[in-house]
Each structure stands twice: as structure tokens, then as C-alpha cells.
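Continuing the batch. This is chain 6 of the set; chains 1 through 5 are on the previous pages. Same settings as before, nothing changed between runs. Recording input and output for traceability.
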Amino acid sequence: MKKFYILLIVTILTPVILNAQDSINIRSKDSLESVDYFSRSIDEWLSDKSDNRMILAPTGRTIKQGQLQIASMVIIPYLAFPTAHVGITDYINVGFGFSVPFGLFYVAPKVRFLKTEYLSISGGLLWCPAKDNSPDFNSFSIGYIAASIGSQEASLNIGAGYNFTRGLFDKKPVVQIGGDLQVARGFKLISENWGIVGESVPVLSAGIRIFNDFINFDALAVFVPGSDFPLAFYPLVSMGLNFDLINKKK
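Output for chain 6:
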């Protein structure tokens, strides 16, 4: 009789145990598929080919060898800055640009000397020669170092620069801190903020970047506290085009 009860209990519980095991296996499989789908979704997000710059400020990253980047930034309603950057190598870039309406020309070489999975550091120079027949403007040069910490999905960008010529910022250091967060495929939140050491008025901004492999569009609201700047904010828009002159992965 005792054996009969044992056999009966085993007969009743075996299907229950097997069904529970099947349920656990199915849930585990669903969980793994969800994780795999999320990972593939992240991997399928577009890379920002303009990650060598915030809007105006350089980052610690560089564009790849053979890449040509053409962009124009407009601070409504005052200035426009058409620019072009060329990747000489993966670590050396050269930029050119001018301002409208003043017609000031500048050259901006940049060298990246450190690259790891989550850190890139670059140094560069912004040199603007004196305008012909203009006694009110002298040439100036600003040396800087910039670092990007993070990944394509989220990064912190910090930088510091120093003016080597008299008459611009009175030879005071300039600091920049900003960041970006990719929240969807081809869509980033972005912020770029400036300060001059010894000055109490910072330049703050917040906006978005929309991008694909060829084109990117930026829209930013720039805030400058102080009575000398009557508007609550100044709109800044930017559009850039990226051309791969050499078919090489970054």
C-alpha cells in the first residue's frame, strides 16, 4: 500500500513539475530574446559623424581619414560661420572657416593624441589672421585641449583654451563643458556651455541634433544672462554635410 501511495504522488506531481520547468524555460528564452533585441537596437543606432564638435566647441574626437565635413552655423540674427573640416588621418584634422558679415578667415588644425573605448583627448589651435586694412582688428590665436568621456550613446565633453594674443578676452582662459545623449535612432539631446575665467557671465545652451550618415541638423537655444543681452535666448541653428572621400571605417 505504501508503494501505491508513492507511485500515485509521483504520477500526480510529475506533469506539474514538467509544466513548471517548461514555463521557466520559455520565460528565460523570452528574457534573452528581449535583451538580444535591445542590444541589436542599440547597435543599429546611427553613429554621429559630426561627433568631432558640439555645435561651436570641439570635442576630444576627430573625423576619420578622408572624411570631408562641411557645415554652417547661424546665430540668429547676427552671425554665420561656414566651416569645412578634412580628415588628413584618423588622428589629424584641419578645419577652415570664415564669419559673415565680418569676413574673418580662420584655420583650425586639430590632433587627437589619446583614444580608448570611452575616452578621447585632442588638442588644437584656432588662428584668425588680421583683416586687411582693418586697424580695429588684430590677429588672434587660441590653443585648446578637449576631452570626450563616454560613448556614442552618451558622452561628457570638456575643454579649456587660452588666448595667446592681446585684445581678446584679455588673455583669460576659456572653459567649456557640455554633453550629449542619444535618445533615439538619429536623435540626440545636446548642451554646450562656456565660461571665461574671471568673468561672471557664462554662455549656456540646450538643444537637439538630428542626423543620419550624410547630414545633420542642430537647433540650440543660447542663454546669456546679463543686461547687455536683452533677448531671453538666442536661437542657433547648424547644418552639416559629411562626405567620405576614402571608403574607410572609423
